[in-house]
């Protein structure tokens, strides 16, 4: 089973390496740095130990987690902890040993574990991961929690009490947010857009794998460049959710190689003040949302006061509701609400 | 297979009372056994029900008939009947009062009505039993009748009556046992290696597996929350959320210190070692019954330092939660999703805190009694797994089972051991109940 998916992965890697984007550049795995496959049979535990040390020597981040996750994946589990006891001390078959070496060599090139094993978990979903599509971070799991709590609290706001909730996600990446919402809310319909064709494809694939494709529309659109098209597609949406690129451009070079070399910069770099896409979303929001519709944003901890001031000065119909903190106590999420003035209110009722 | 296992369960050794089991007519044996089977819904709390100091000798295990022969039981039943009639009179009389006391009367009346409806099934069974006993007495005179045909008929009827009496007594005993709130809940199982280093950890792993299979055997879900392994494949500490019908009831007697005696895999000179591990069985509170203030929690993750968010990509999704007022800690790295790890750690933490609260309450309630409960009970050695003799002995009831491997499968043998514990526990609860009645009466 894993062999099939792995060989499929190989094909996709192949074309990426020689692809026009030149994503891999000089970071192609150097075979000379990979330890030789041992001649004798080894156990999974030995292989994990060997690679852990090798990763550590070569300065690869999280050496132990990396080798454990790769081994667990090869043995058919998600984590070492959930692996059946005793499996680690069994000998690896020659094929598995070879796979372990192939995958670990990729990790050695600083490829993120999530891309190496081509999947990761987001809340209760297992999603396919593929470079250069942004790998969802744990904070975004909390963003989804915020949206879910609110949507479950007050069903059917906006156009009529029985109206379905509709949601727009800007920058869907692998589809983590949209698919989690769809999975938890069986009545919800979602439109997702992303500026990257890779992201649009991956979101579609993940939706299909999870059987959630019927209530999801994915479009290859850039909110900044294709604003008119976005507006024509989305009207009277009750929820606008986004984990937009929010890094300050000056911070980009300080990123770990895992991020800087492998993930799509367009999903990370938010311009000089990290607000480029955020401002665009908030400018369009009044035209996209139904009255009292809400915007949920994941942002940089420096952003919330800036966003509040900017919205108050620039977007009349949006009210800043509150800032929420992430699990570690950083101000991470902004919630805003559309409050129409009287003259627009009429328009909204139609 | 099942019968062989059942035979294995017969007590052996000093503390056992095989003589008593043999002396009793077979129908009594069956009766006691069925008593416990019917009582799963009404048994007492985990630890309170079992003596831990001296082994509970099965000699004390009384049959239904013996229980009913006790004066204390008869007195208790009379007392319940009196209470019932009083409540009924008060409830149906109703009305009266007025002014300031009206509200008070109303509350009292409601309490009495509740009591009536609670006692009604028991009272009904007691009355049915009375009727049956009178009927039996009547047929007994017919047994001595001159007409052979009539005698035969009377004999049949007499037999039927005796059976009905047995059934009713059974039912009354079940209804007498108070229901414990925790019995209806799911649970969190915790195993921790004790004395004995690596060997204790290896044994802890085997015991954890045994309970996983026990859960499977009963069709309960078994969701691992914490799992901390040792270098050579042992288990330092683990916890799991277990849920399913009867799960807490069937698991609660497992709490305590389990001792293993064997030549460890790690031992080079073939010497026998004695090691221990501890099992805790904590009822899982519902969100409503037990709340934790989020301000009292400190949540620790790998991502706590630095900017977090899009700046960082880590695969370390472990979550550790500290409850600041008590210092109780729960952690989980079972999942790849951080929010899932947080949920699981919260589950473990809630169960730990709830367990502490329950323990505090029960020890306050029962500290006058000789029966060991709570923490004390948990620190007592409850069971020994002796590999060279291929036996498992439960020290609380002095019961020995042979075939350790089958026992560790977590199927019939463990189940039967639990049934025996349940049986003793039920009787202890009943004795406590009757003892209290006597004191009240004097």
Topology summary:
The complex is a heterodimer of chains A (350) and B (442).
Chain A: H1 2-17, H2 44-57, H3 63-74, H4 94-108, H5 113-116, E1 119-122, E2 125-128, H6 138-153, E3 166-170, H7 176-184, E4 189-194, H8 197-210, E5 216-220, H9 227-233, E6 237-242, H10 257-262, H11 276-288, E7 289-298, H12 303-314, E8 318-325, E9 331-338, H13 342-349
Parallel strand pairs in A: 3-4, 3-6, 4-5, 6-7
Antiparallel strand pairs in A: 1-2, 7-9, 8-9
Chain B: H1 2-8, H2 18-23, H3 26-38, H4 64-69, H5 71-93, H6 102-143, H7 148-176, E1 187-193, H8 197-218, E2 221-229, E3 235-243, H9 247-251, E4 256-262, E5 273-283, E6 297-301, E7 319-323, E8 328-332, H10 338-366, H11 374-379, E9 381-386, E10 391-394, E11 399-402, H12 404-408, H13 412-441
Parallel strand pairs in B: 4-9
Antiparallel strand pairs in B: 1-3, 1-5, 2-3, 4-5, 6-7, 7-8, 9-10, 10-11
Helix pairs in contact in B: 3-13, 5-6, 5-13, 6-7
Which second-level CATH architecture of the largest domain in chain A applies?
Answer: 3-Layer(aba) Sandwich
> Could you spell the SSE succession of chain A in H and E letters?
HHHHHEEHEHEHEHEHHEHEEH
Query: What is the spatial order of strands in the main beta sheet of chain B?
Result: 2-3-1-5-4-9-10-11
Low-pLDDT stretches of chain B: 1-56, 367-377, 437-442
Specify the helix fraction band of chain A.
40-55%
Intertermini distance of chain A? 53 Å
**CATH first level of the largest domain in chain A: which class?**
Alpha Beta
SS-derived structural category of chain A: alpha/beta
Globally, the shape of chain B reads flat
Radius of gyration of chain B: 26 Å
Radius of gyration of chain A: 22 Å
Strand proportion of chain B, as a percent range, falls in 15-25%
Q: Give the number of DSSP strands of chain B.
A: 11
Helix share, percent of chain B: 40-55%
Give me the count of strands of chain A.
9
Q: Termini separation of chain B (Å)?
A: 52 Å
Low-confidence stretches of chain A: 1-32, 157-162, 344-350
Question: Helices and strands of chain B: which structural class?
Answer: alpha+beta
Helix run count of chain B: 13
Q: What's the order of the H and E elements of chain B?
A: HHHHHHHEHEEHEEEEEHHEEEHH
Coiled coil (chain B): 139-171
InterPro entries (chain B): PCRF, Pep_chain_release_fac_I, Pep_chain_release_fac_I_sf, Prokaryotic/Mito_RF
Keywords (chain B): Coiled coil, Protein biosynthesis
Domain Prokaryotic-type class I peptide chain release factors (chain B): 303-319
């Amino acid at each position: 089973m894993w062999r099939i998916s792995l060989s499929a992965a190989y094909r996709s890697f192949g074309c990426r390496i020689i692809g026009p984007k030149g994503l891999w550049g000089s970071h192609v795995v150097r075979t000379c740095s990979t330890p030789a496959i041992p001649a004798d049979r080894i156990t999974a535990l030995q292989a994990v130990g060997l690679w852990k040390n090798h990763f550590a020597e070569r300065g690869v981040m999280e050496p132990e987690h990396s080798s454990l996750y790769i081994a667990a994946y090869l043995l058919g589990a998600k984590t070492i902890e959930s692996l059946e006891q005793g499996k680690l001390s069994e000998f690896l078959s020659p094929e598995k040993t070879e796979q372990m070496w192939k995958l670990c060599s990729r990790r050695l090139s600083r490829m993120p574990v999530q891309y190496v094993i081509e999947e990761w978990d987001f809340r209760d979903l297992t999603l396919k991961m593929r470079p250069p599509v942004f790998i969802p971070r744990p904070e975004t799991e909390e963003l989804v929690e915020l949206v879910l709590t609110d949507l479950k609290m007050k069903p059917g706001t906006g156009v009529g009490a029985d109206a379905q909730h509709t949601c727009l996600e800007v920058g869907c990446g692998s589809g983590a947010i949209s698919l989690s919402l769809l999975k938890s809310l069986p009545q919800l319909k979602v439109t997702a857009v992303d500026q990257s064709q890779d992201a649009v494809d991956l979101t579609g694939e993940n939706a299909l794998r999870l059987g959630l494709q019927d209530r999801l529309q994915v479009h290859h659109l850039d909110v900044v460049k294709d604003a008119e098209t976005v507006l024509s597609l989305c009207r009277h949406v009750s929820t606008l959710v986004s984990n937009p690129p929010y890094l300050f451009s000056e911070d980009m070079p300080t990123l770990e190689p895992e991020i800087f070399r492998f993930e799509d910069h367009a999903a990370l770099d938010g311009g000089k003040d990290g607000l480029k896409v955020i401002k665009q979303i908030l400018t369009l929001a009044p035209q996209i949302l139904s009255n009292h519709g809400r915007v949920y944003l994941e942002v940089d901890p420096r952003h919330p006061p800036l966003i509040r001031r900017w919205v108050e000065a620039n977007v009349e119909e949006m009210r800043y509701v509150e800032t929420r903190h992430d699990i570690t106590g950083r101000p991470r999420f902004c919630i805003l609400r559309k409050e129409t003035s009287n003259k627009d209110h009429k328009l909204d009722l139609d | 297979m099942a019968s062989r296992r059942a035979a294995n369960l017969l007590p052996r050794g000093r503390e056992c009372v095989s003589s008593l089991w043999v002396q009793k007519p077979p129908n009594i044996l069956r009766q006691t056994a069925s008593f416990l089977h019917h009582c799963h819904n009404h048994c007492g709390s985990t630890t309170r029900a079992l003596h831990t100091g001296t082994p509970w000798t099965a000699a004390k295990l009384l049959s239904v008939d013996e229980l009913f022969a006790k004066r204390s039981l008869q007195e208790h039943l009379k007392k319940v009947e009196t209470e019932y009639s009083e409540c009924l009179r008060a409830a149906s009389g109703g009305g009266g009062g007025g002014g300031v006391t009206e509200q008070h009367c109303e509350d009292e009346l409601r309490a009495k009505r509740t009591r009536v409806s609670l006692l009604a099934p028991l009272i009904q069974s007691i009355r049915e039993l009375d009727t049956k006993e009178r009927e039996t007495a009547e047929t007994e005179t017919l047994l001595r009748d001159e007409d052979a045909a009539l005698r035969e008929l009377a004999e049949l009827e007499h037999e039927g009556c005796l059976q009905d009496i047995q059934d009713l007594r059974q039912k009354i005993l079940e209804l007498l046992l108070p229901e414990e709130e925790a019995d209806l809940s799911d649970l969190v199982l915790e195993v921790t290696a004790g004395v004995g280093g690596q060997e204790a950890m290896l044994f802890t792993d085997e015991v954890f597996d045994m309970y996983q299979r026990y859960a499977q055997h009963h069709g309960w879900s078994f969701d691992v929350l914490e799992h901390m392994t040792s270098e050579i494949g042992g288990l330092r500490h683990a916890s799991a959320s277990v849920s399913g019908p009867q799960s807490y009831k069937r698991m609660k007697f497992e709490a305590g210190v389990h001792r293993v005696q064997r030549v460890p895999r790690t031992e080079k000179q073939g010497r026998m070692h004695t090691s221990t591990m501890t099992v805790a069985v904590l009822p899982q509170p519902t969100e409503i019954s037990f709340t934790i203030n989020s301000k009292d929690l400190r949540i620790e993750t790998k991502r706590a330092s630095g900017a977090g968010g899009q700046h960082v990509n880590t695969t370390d999704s472990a979550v550790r939660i500290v409850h600041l007022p008590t210092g109780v800690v729960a952690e989980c790295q079972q999942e790849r999703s951080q929010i899932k790890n947080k949920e699981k750690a919260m589950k473990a933490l809630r169960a730990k805190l709830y367990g502490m609260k329950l323990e505090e309450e029960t020890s306050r309630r029962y500290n006058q009694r000789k029966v060991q409960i709570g923490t004390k009970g948990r620190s007592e050695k409850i069971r020994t797994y002796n590999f060279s003799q291929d036996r498992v002995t439960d020290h609380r009831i002095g019961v020995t089972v042979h075939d350790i491997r089958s026992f560790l499968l977590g199927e019939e043998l463990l189940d039967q051991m639990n049934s025996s514990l349940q049986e003793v526990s039920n009787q202890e609860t009943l004795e406590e109940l009757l003892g209290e009645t006597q004191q009240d009466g004097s």
